[in-house]
Amino acid sequence: MGPNLCIVDTSMKMNELDTLEISRRLQTTDTGHAEHESPLPGLEGEPTPAAVLLALFRSQGRWRVLYIRRATNQADRHSGEVAFPGGRIEMEDADPDAAALREAHEEIALHPRRVELIGRLPSFRTASNYLVNPVVGTIPWPLDLSPDEREVARIFSIPLDWLADRANYAIRPWQPPGYRISRDVVFYREYDGERLWGVSGRITLSLLQSLAGRKEK
Length: 217
Prior knowledge:
Elements: H1 19-27, E1 35-36, E2 48-59, E3 62-70, E4 82-83, E5 86-88, H2 96-108, E6 116-120, E7 124-125, E8 130-138, E9 152-159, H3 160-164, E10 169-174, E11 183-191, E12 194-197, H4 198-212
């Protein structure tokens, strides 16, 4: 990953942040500066616009982030991986917000009216040549969600303070299968039987960096 990949400051007290403060910190994030990976050989060209939804909610006094595990699909480059609800931005989508809400509704039956959008993170160009626009919102909890089994194998969440703990993740070189190149990739420890890593891990760190208000070198 690019030079902006860094460790976040985990001394902040995540669970003391309220929705207004989270929104304020997101609004001060420079979303015009896209971070990127170099597209893999054979995947160069204009990136495909996409959007994902980072849905935050409070449960038992802790902020949590909603994730999915993608269904097994041989045609999907990211089959079986932990991800956020999301997908390509379609012609009918007014903007990345609308695309993220539409995809979350289709994939996990999260109705757009249950989401309070509070900000965005910088876009991220992936090695598979997507330009991903992360959209952040809060949702009430508990909430009745249902995965579209064609696309989603499981819906789960991870506490925000666990994600911010440096003991739970590392950044190390990784070589994509079939390629003779390596790049720095985020790998989290397993949580509840799931492994967060790759682009979703990087976007998670971007969220944490925005909430911290600064980055560490």
